[in-house]
Amino acid sequence: MDYQRFKEQVKAQKVSESHLVREAIRRYLDYAEKQTLDSGETKVERRLKRMEDRLASLLARLGVDIGIVYQFLWHQSDPETRSQLFNKCYKDSKNRLAGKLDKIETEFKELIKEAVLAEDKPAATPE
């Protein structure tokens, strides 16, 4: 049955049997390579999704903790001066962090890059 279909394709395409076999092998290899690449990308995508979920969870907890501290300090400060005090603290913190963020982002990117590359390295084979 398959051989008959093969012969019909040779005749329909007006090519030699060997040409059709080479073309079929080439297409199969292209498909297999694409599947391998797609599965690798899927692995990276899953890893990134887990990292995103973890960071989102940490940021949410951090936000709650900061909110608690903020509210505590707000209620404990002098009602007449707390607005000015909190505005000054906000500006000072913003200025302090402005110079640090670039360095922190660069370090974080390097850590992520190392983690992803380490995960993609093939296992060492014994000699």
Describe this structure in words.
There is one protein chain. The protein contains three helices and no strands. Helices cover 87% and strands 0% of the residues. With 127 residues, the chain is mainly alpha-helical. The radius of gyration is 30 Å and the shape is rod-shaped.
Oligomeric state of shown chains: single chain
| Helix/strand/pairing category | mainly alpha
Number of domains: 2
How many strands appear in the DSSP assignment?
A: 0
- What average pLDDT do the residues reach? 85
Question: What's the shape?
Answer: rod-shaped
- Number of separate helices: 3
Q: Spans of 5+ residues with little confidence (pLDDT < 50)?
A: none
Tell me about the biggest sheet? none
Quote the beta fraction: under 5%
Strand and helix order: HHH
Distance separating the two termini: 47 Å
Q: Radius of gyration, Cα only, in angstroms?
A: 30 Å
Helix content: over 70%
